[in-house]
Amino acid sequence: MKLLAIAVLTLVVTVAVPAAADSTYTWDFATTPNQSLGSLSSVYVNNGLSISATGSTNLYYKQLGLGETGLGLNNCLKGGCDHEIQVGQSISFNLSSLLNKNVMGISLILESVQPGETGSVCDAFGTCITVTSANNDKPISLMGLFTDMRSHHSGKLVVSAGSGDVLVNQLQATTCATVPEPSSLLLMGSGLVGLAGIVRHKFCS
Questions:
Q1: Is 164 in contact with 124 (CB distance < 8 Å)?
Q2: Which residues, listed in sequence order, are joined to residue 93 by a DSSP beta bridge?
Q3: What are the residues whose beta carbons fall under 8 Å from the beta carbon of 30, sequence distance 6 or more?
C-alpha cells in the first residue's frame, strides 16, 4: 500500500479559455438622405443579425442635420410633407432575432422630439416608454421593455408619436455569449491515467 501511495502522482492541468466578449449590434435608420424606400417594410442587418421595420405608410429616410435625422414615413399631413411619424401613425420593429440572445443592454434613439412633443415606444402588450424633448437624440434604455417582450415571446416594438412628430434614428443592442471553460484533471500513477472534465461558464461583465 505504501508503495502504491508513493507511486501515485496527481498532475492538475488547467486549460484556460478567454471569457466571452460583448457583441454590439447597431442599426442606423437613415442611410440615404431624404428618400422614400418605396415600400412599407425594410430589413436591416448588422453583424449578421437581422431586424425589420414596417410602417403604417411607406418608410422614408430623412436627413436634415442634427436632431432631424432618422426613419420616418412617406406622408403629407397637416398641410405639409415632413416625412416623420405623426400622431396616429407608427413604425413597428420585429426584434425576434434578439429574443434568444443574452441581451445585456438595448437602447433606442428618437429625434425631432420638440418641446411639448412626445414619442411613444411600446411592446405588443401595452407596456410603453414615453420620450420627451429632454431625451431627443439621446439613447433611451429599453431593457425593461425588452424584458417584458421576452417574457411574452414577442419581438414586436412599436414607435409612434404621442404628440407632434418623431423619427427613429438608431437601435443598439449589446449581447454576451457564454463560453465553456474546460479544466481537465489528469491523474497519473501506477500505470493508471484518469481524466475528468469540469465545465465552468464565464459571463460578460
A1: no
A2: 53, 157
A3: 61, 62, 63, 69, 70, 71, 167, 169
- For residue 180, pLDDT beyond 60: no
Please tell me whether residues 8 and 75 are part of one structural domain. no
Q: How far apart are CA 202 and CA 180, in angstroms?
A: 7
Domain range spanning residue 43? 22-176
77 Cα distance to chain centroid: 32
List, in order, residues 6 or more apart from 164 with CB less than 8 Å away.
86, 87, 112, 113, 114, 116, 117, 118
Shared domain check, 192 and 117: no
Residues 13 and 35 in one domain: no
Which residue(s) pair with 178 in the sheet? none
Same domain, 106 and 149: yes
Q: 193 and 117: one domain?
A: no
State residue 184's pLDDT score.
36
Tell me: do 32 and 130 sit in the same domain. yes
Per the model's pLDDT, the better-predicted residue between 144 and 22 turns out to be 144
Grid cell in block for residue 155: 419581438
Distance CA 109, CA 131 (A): 10
Whether residue 191 sits in one domain with residue 139 = no
Q: What is the mean pLDDT of the chain?
A: 82
Please name the residues in contact with 56: beta carbons below 8 A apart, sequence gap of 6 or more.
Answer: 40, 73, 89, 90, 91
